[in-house]
Amino acid sequence: MIKKLKIKFVCINMAIITAVLFVIFGMIITSTSANLERESIAFMQIASKSSFLPGRPGELPEETRTPFFTVKISPNGVVSADGGSFFDLSDRAMLEEIVDSAFYSEEKTGIIKNYNLRFLKEETPGGTTIIFADISSEQATIINLIKTCFFIGIISFGVFFGISVLLARWAIKPIENAWKQQKQFVADASHELKTPLTVILTNAELLQSEDCTETDKNRLSGNIYSMSKRMRGLVENLLDLARADNGTSKMVFEKLNFSDLVYESILPFEPVYFENGKNLYYRLDKDINLWGSADYLKQTVDILLDNANKYSFENTAIRVELIKKEKHCVLSVKSEGEHISKENLKNIFKRFYRVDEARTDGESYGLGLSIAETIVKEHKGKIWAESKENDNIFFVQIPI
User: For residue 234, how many C-alpha atoms fall within 13 Å in the half-sphere facing its CB?
Assistant: First the structure.
């Protein structure tokens, strides 16, 4: 699909570029041809006037450069031609043919294609004067211009084709990345759903066994219930991410006290940390008010506190700070754990990504930080992580 999209992008670009080149070169050729014709007719008009001046019969005005000759037809029908220095006018049959073509033409000016001549008729008291000018050089100029435009067009087409290919790669890159992420997302989601589904089916089959005791039934039904809850949690997380991707998130924004919200989120984790032999310290600036969704911001704080509990060393401390600044507030959750490399710091917010794939408690899907990032972005904020030696710190910055 991506390849077809790139080809389509390049084809559309080249079609537009070809049309533009045709229009530009067409305008250049048409304009040049019109200018040459206008200059030729102006020259013929000058030549026509000069033929009426006394003492200058057959002399070429200084302004003229094109070969021409003059034919005068008296009222009695006598034809006389002047301009033999440029043309051989001894061929009376040829002369009569071109004179008749011009004389009987309904137009004042025109072209005799067989002889590459342009004519201009002028009616005078002494009869009709017809100026014939050679247009061979004019036609040669147009032909050379067409050839030049053709070669320039070929070169331009090649250059623009290369640029279009590069632009196609650059423009399609986000779509390609999104497509790859979608495929990876589907594959990871399927993998995460496969395990609980397998457990549920296996336990359901054992429940139907004739040898299953009451104790076994209680245990197996408990396993099914546990796995069902796990699947529901995964599906809900996937739906939240899908809504955010589609711009249909159900976040309800209101004015709230973020300091109180963070404090209320910390309280349930104190006994959890205590049971795991970890200490919890926090320092919160008071009365930090902002516009946001209380439920979703609480979910973000819970994700950070839960991750700190899961991935910190035993008998260590977790420190939570909420600091108010001029235009935003910064929430930080610091814990002591394994050092996170720079590469992993970039990837930990990706969906289903785990720093240590082997380290899982069966309830983590690698979606928490991705969900937190989505929530923070909806609040026009940003989230990032830093790791120095064994100190891992997650930051959330939200406008106030």
Answer: 25
Output the CA–CA distances (angstroms, integers) from residue 245 to 239, 241, 292, 293, 374, in the order listed: 10, 6, 19, 17, 9
Q: Which residue, 113, 141, 169, sits at the end of a domain?
A: 141
Q: State phi, psi for 82 to the nearest 5 degrees.
A: -135, 140
Structural domain count of the chain: 2
The verdict on residue 327 lying in a domain is yes
Q: Is residue 195 part of a domain?
A: no
79-82 vs 68-73, strand pairing mode: antiparallel
Helices and strands: H and E segment counts in the chain: 9, 12
Spell 351-363 as b/e; 16+ CB within 10 A means b.
bebbbeeeeeeee
Q: What distance in Å separates the CA atoms of residue 6 and residue 333, rounded to the nearest whole number? A: 44
What is the reported pLDDT for 281?
93
Last residue within a domain, chosen from 83, 116, 141 = 141
Q: Domain of residue 368: give its range.
A: 254-399
pLDDT in tens, 134-152: 888 888 999 999 999 999 9
User: What percentage of the chain carries pLDDT values higher than 90?
Assistant: 28
Nearest to 301 by CA among 185, 243, 381, 236: 381
- Strand 109-112 to strand 117-124: parallel, antiparallel, or no bridges (unpaired)? antiparallel
Give domain status of residue 202, yes or no: no
Indicate whether 221 belongs to any domain. Answer: no
Q: What CATH number does the domain containing 281 carry?
A: 3.30.565.10
